[in-house]
Specification:
This protein is mainly beta. The chain contains 1 helix and 18 strands. It has a single domain, classed as Jelly Rolls (Sandwich). The radius of gyration is 17 Å and the shape is globular.
């Protein structure tokens, strides 16, 4: 059988410019990473054991899912987790290393119902559950949605200097996302790798854990790649739990 990764490349030639099904590609050719950056992390969820590389706010909310040809990390239900301050509930972090400056790309699909705050999140600079950044990618922007946020021992606050009006997650559609963090500058892309959907500039937190999730929705993650100027420091996110 043809894997979803191969089918995306094939589908781009056939379906370019069309709104496709889950297997259709969602991004334009990627811009080059900054000079001196190298690929330091890659995860395609080819086996159930890959889930052990992550730590979770609630491991029971996540599962290894697929159709026999392609697989993903799936947030299948709401986490049994109460953060100490108002911030996302559903978090999966790459649990054994921290990243400073980096470029991250991944494929996301949102599996929840359509509404203004329908979202998936990218987490970065995570120090602990009460000190972190996240990019909330949602249908509509407001003070609590579709922005870059900081959680600093207080309810999340948006720090974006620029954002679009929102994104169209669609139904059954995979999207390519990209997050760049360099010397405090934060830039997020969605499908179009030339025009960012949000940006911010903040240096409150340095190197930290990186991850994925949602404030209070569901979705899937696949094809994670991270480039950085040096190998990430190995450090375990012991405040969350891994799968058995």
């Amino acid at each position: 059988m043809i894997s979803r990764r191969f089918k995306r490349v094939l589908g781009f030639a056939v379906l370019a410019g069309m709104v496709g099904a889950a297997d259709a590609p969602s991004s334009q050719p990627n811009p080059a990473v900054p000079p001196g950056y190298a690929l330091v992390y890659e995860q395609h969820f080819d086996a159930p054991e890959s889930l052990r590389q992550f730590t979770y706010s609630d491991p029971q909310a996540w599962k290894f899912s697929g159709d026999g040809a392609s697989f993903a990390l799936e947030l299948a239900k709401q986490s049994d987790y109460q953060p100490t301050v108002r911030s996302p509930f559903n978090i999966a972090l790459i649990g054994d290393r921290i990243f400073g400056d980096f470029v991250l790309e991944a494929d996301l699909i949102q599996t929840g119902k359509e509404y203004g705050h329908r979202d998936m999140c990218l987490f970065f600079g995570v120090q602990d559950p009460a000190h972190l950044y996240y990019a909330h990618i949602a249908t509509k922007t407001d003070d609590h949605a579709h922005n870059v946020f900081i959680v600093n021992q207080a309810p999340r606050i948006k720090i974006s200097s620029q954002t679009t009006s929102g994104v169209n997650w669609g139904l059954g559609v995979w999207h390519r996302v990209r997050l760049e963090r360099q010397k405090g500058k934060i830039t997020v892309f969605f499908d179009d790798m030339k025009q960012p959907i949000m940006s911010a500039d903040d240096q409150t937190f340095g190197a930290g854990w990186v991850g994925f999730g949602s404030f209070d929705d569901t979705g899937k993650v696949d094809n994670i790649r991270i480039w950085a100027p040096s190998e990430p420091e190995r450090k375990v996110a012991s405040f969350f739990r891994s799968v058995p």
